[in-house]
Design brief:
By secondary structure, the protein is an alpha/beta fold. The chain is built from 15 helices and 15 strands. Strands 1, 2, 3, 4, 6, 8, 9, 10 and 11 form a nine-stranded mixed sheet that branches. A hairpin with a 6-residue loop joins β14 and β15.
C-alpha cells in the first residue's frame, strides 16, 4: 500500500469538553464536526501534561515529560531525542512545520526539514520556574484575560494563525504541482483558542450572548477546595477579581468564537486537500495540546488534571481509508509518535516510546487495557504531581497531597472523591503502586530544581553582552520565486499552473 501523506493539525488549549461531537450543547464547529462524523473519533484522549511545552514535547517524542526534561514551558528539548518527524524522515517522508511547537534551545526543527513560520513564544529560558523559593508568592498570570474579552479586528493570535494558515495552504498547493511522488507530513499548529479569548466580529457574532452557557459545576469555595485546585486558584490570582456570571459568559463567548475561528481554518485546509486531489492520498489528524477549565469548578486556564483541562480531541480522517467510528478506550498524545511511525512503515525502528500505535484500532481492533500517565511539573506547584487513568478510574497523585480518585463512568464531573471509600481501598492501593513504580518523586524533584537553577543562571548570563539567537527565522529564497534571470515567463507560468 502506498504510504499516505499525513496532515497533522493542532489547536492550542482546546478542550474536548467544549466540542459538539464530545457532547457540548452550544459550540457549533461545523468543519470539525464533519471530521468527527466521517472519521475515527477517540472519545477519551488525554494530554500527558496540561501545559503547552511539556505536552508538545512529550507528544513529539512519545515519552513522558519527566523522561526528556520537558518539565515546563522553558526546557531545552535535546536534539538527541528522536521525534516523530525523525522517524517519518527515515520512512522517506518530506516533513514540514507551519506554526507553534514551543521548542526551546538552538534546535528549532527537531526532525522537520522545513519550518514555514517562526514560533509565537520565546525560544530562550526566560520562562523557567523557580522551585528553590517555595515561600515566594508565585503568580504566572492573572485574571485579566478572563475579564478583557470581546470582538476585535486584529490580535497577536490572529496575526500568527493567519500566517500559519496562509503558509500551510501555499505549501500544499506547491506539493500538488511539484510532481513529486515523495509522501509528506505537514504539521499545522495554531495558537488559538488559547487566551486571550478575542475573535473577529464574524466569529464572535456566530453566538448570541443569550445562548452562552455557564459552567456545569459552579465555583467551589476556597475553603472546600482540594490542595491541587487551591494552588491553581492562588497561582492564577482567581480571588483578586469579581468574576460574575456575566464575566464568565463573556469569556466563554470569546472561547467559543475562537473555536469557530480555528474551525474555519480547518475548513480551508480540508478544502485545499479536496480541490487539489491530495486528499485521496492523505490522512488528516486533528488534536490539541491540552484544554481549558473555562470557569468549571471556579477554575480557569490550564495546569489542572480535571477533565476540561486535560482531556483533548483526537480525530483521524481519511474518507478513502478509514471508516467512521468512535473509540471509547482511553488513549493519550503519547500514542501519536508510534501511530505515525506505524502509518509510515517504520514502527519497528522506534527506539523507545511510552505510547502505543493506534493503527490497529483505526481499522477496528480493540485496544488492550492500559494505564494512562500524565504529569504536571511546572510553575504553580513545588512538588511533582501525577495523573493515572485506568478503566475510567482517574487518580490525582502527589506525595504532598491527599489522593483523589474519581470514577468517570458514574461521576463525569469529578465531584465524588472515592479515595476514602472502603470499597475502593484495593483499587487505590493498586493505582498508587503503579505511580510509585513509574516515578521516584523525590529524585524527580531534585532533577527539576537542579535543571531550573542551571537554566536561570544561563538566562541571566545571556542578558550580559550579546545574547544567542535561538528564535527560528523563516528563510525565503527569492531567487526561486516568480520569474528570474534566464527564465521565460511562459515556461515559469506553465510550471506554476494548477488546473482546478
Amino acid at each position: 500500500m502506498k504510504q499516505p501523506n499525513i496532515v497533522f493539525v493542532m489547536a492550542d488549549q482546546l478542550s474536548a469538553k467544549a466540542l459538539p461531537f464530545y457532547g457540548h450543547k452550544v459550540v457549533k464547529a461545523p468543519a470539525m464536526s464533519r471530521l468527527a462524523r466521517e472519521g475515527v473519533v477517540f472519545e477519551n484522549t488525554y494530554c500527558n501534561s496540561p501545559l503547552c511545552g511539556p505536552s508538545r514535547l512529550s507528544m513529539m517524542s512519545g515519552l513522558l515529560p519527566s523522561k526528556i526534561g520537558g518539565y515546563d514551558n522553558a526546557p531545552e528539548f535535546s536534539s538527541a531525542i528522536p521525534t516523530f518527524a525523525h522517524y517519518l524522515r527515515l520512512a522517506g517522508y518530506r516533513t514540514c512545520l507551519s506554526g507553534k511547537m514551543h521548542f526551546v534551545g538552538p534546535d528549532q526543527l527537531h526532525g522537520y526539514e522545513e519550518r514555514l513560520t517562526t514560533d509565537i513564544y520565546p525560544s530562550d529560558f526566560g520562562w523557567t520556574p523557580n522551585w528553590s523559593e517555595p515561600d515566594a508568592k508565585v503568580r504566572f498570570q492573572d485574571m485579566q484575560n478572563i475579564i478583557e474579552t470581546g470582538p476585535c479586528l486584529r490580535s497577536l493570535q490572529i496575526d500568527y494563525d493567519d500566517d500559519v494558515q496562509a503558509q500551510a495552504v501555499r505549501w500544499l498547493y506547491d506539493r500538488s504541482r511539484d510532481g513529486s511522488k515523495q509522501p509528506f507530513m505537514l504539521t499545522v499548529s495554531f495558537t488559538s483558542p488559547h487566551d486571550p479569548y478575542v475573535a473577529r466580529p464574524e466569529f464572535w457574532d456566530i453566538y448570541d450572548d443569550s445562548e452562552i452557557d455557564l459552567p456545569k459545576v459552579p465555583a467551589i469555595p476556597l475553603a472546600e477546595q482540594d490542595a491541587h485546585s487551591a494552588r491553581i486558584h492562588e497561582h492564577y490570582s482567581v480571588g483578586d477579581k469579581d468574576i460574575t456570571d456575566d464575566v464568565i459568559k463573556r469569556a466563554r463567548h470569546g472561547y467559543y468564537a475562537s473555536i469557530e475561528y480555528i474551525d474555519n481554518k480547518i475548513s480551508a485546509l480540508v478544502g485545499t486537500l479536496e480541490e487539489t486531489g491530495l486528499l485521496k492520498d492523505t490522512i488528516f489528524v486533528f488534536a490539541s495540546d491540552h484544554g481549558d477549565m473555562m470557569g468549571e469548578r471556579g477554575m480557569y486556564y490550564k495546569k489542572s488534571f480535571f477533565e476540561w483541562s486535560s482531556r483533548v480531541p483526537l480525530i483521524f480522517w481519511s474518507p478513502d481509508r478509514l471508516a467512521a467510528k468512535r473509540v471509547k478506550e482511553t488513549v493519550s498524545l503519547l500514542d501519536i509518535l508510534p501511530t505515525f511511525a506505524d502509518i509510515s512503515g517504520v514502527l519497528d525502528q522506534v527506539l523507545e516510546t511510552d505510547g502505543n500505535s493506534l493503527v490497529p484500532t483505526l481499522f477496528g481492533d480493540p485496544i488492550d487495557e492500559r494505564t494512562i500517565l500524565a504529569e504536571f511539573l511546572a510553575e504553580g506547584i513545588f512538588n511533582p504531581t501525577f495523573l493515572l487513568i485506568k478503566n475510567r478510574l482517574k487518580l490525582f497523585y502527589s506525595e504532598v497531597d491527599p489522593p483523589m480518585l474519581f470514577d468517570l463512568e458514574t461521576d463525569p464531573d469529578e465531584l465524588i472523591n472515592l479515595a476514602g471509600d472502603p470499597a475502593y481501598t484495593e483499587v487505590l492501593k493498586a493505582m498508587v503502586a503503579i505511580a510509585d513504580e513509574a516515578w521516584d518523586s523525590k529524585k524527580l524533584k531534585q532533577r527539576i530544581v537542579a535543571d531550573q537553577n542551571r537554566r536561570r543562571l544561563i538566562q541571566k548570563s545571556h542578558q550580559i553582552g550579546v545574547p544567542p539567537v535561538w528564535d527560528f527565522q523563516p528563510y525565503i529564497d527569492a531567487s526561486q520565486q516568480y520569474v528570474r534571470s534566464g527564465q521565460w515567463t511562459t515556461e515559469v507560468e506553465s510550471k506554476a499552473f494548477l488546473k482546478g
